[in-house]
């Protein structure tokens, strides 16, 4: 079985190869190690292997690991965020990837003002309109961006999506391509508090295609740490 260091090297090499073919700078791609259910020892092994950014799906896991990891990594919230839990992580995460409503934006802004911080967010887009996934519809991206631009303590940093788990990974390509097109369109608009800096798309199964379609932020868990083992207790 490959080590965490070896797995990270494989992903890094994929990033380099794809970026080289496209004339892109691989250093401009952020690799987020998804640490859902992963213990601190293994996370530290990843950090020692060059990982600077980790992504958690749940607020509680951020709370549990924060003190041990706050000084050695950038922490991202990549899972669904309920409004009533914003207060726990508002001053702890570098980036909230999963903003999917104006109501949630309002709460993030309110909590950010109270905490005296600027909240960096991505708008999560449900490109494929899957009932089982969170995210706004493509048709409403512009209105959400415009709304966010008026909130003083929020900075929109880009877009995020989770592609469907298709039988054939190549089927994800139109999903990523569509969001990249919207990302490029928004990059040409001038909104206050909005910068199209990050296009967060691609996970263990589909990050190569996401990179080929322009992603500059990928979220890899199983591809780094191996298959997750869930506590049944």
From TrEMBL:
InterPro entries: Ala_racemase_N, PLP-binding_barrel, PyrdxlP_homeostasis. The keyword Acyltransferase does not apply. Its cofactor is pyridoxal 5'-phosphate. The modification N6-(pyridoxal phosphate)lysine is found at residue 36. One of its GO terms (molecular function) is pyridoxal phosphate binding. The keyword Hydrolase does not apply. It holds the Pfam family Ala_racemase_N. Belongs to the pyridoxal phosphate-binding protein YggS/PROSC family. This is Pyridoxal phosphate homeostasis protein. The lineage of its organism: Bacteria, Bacillati, Bacillota, Clostridia, Lutisporales.
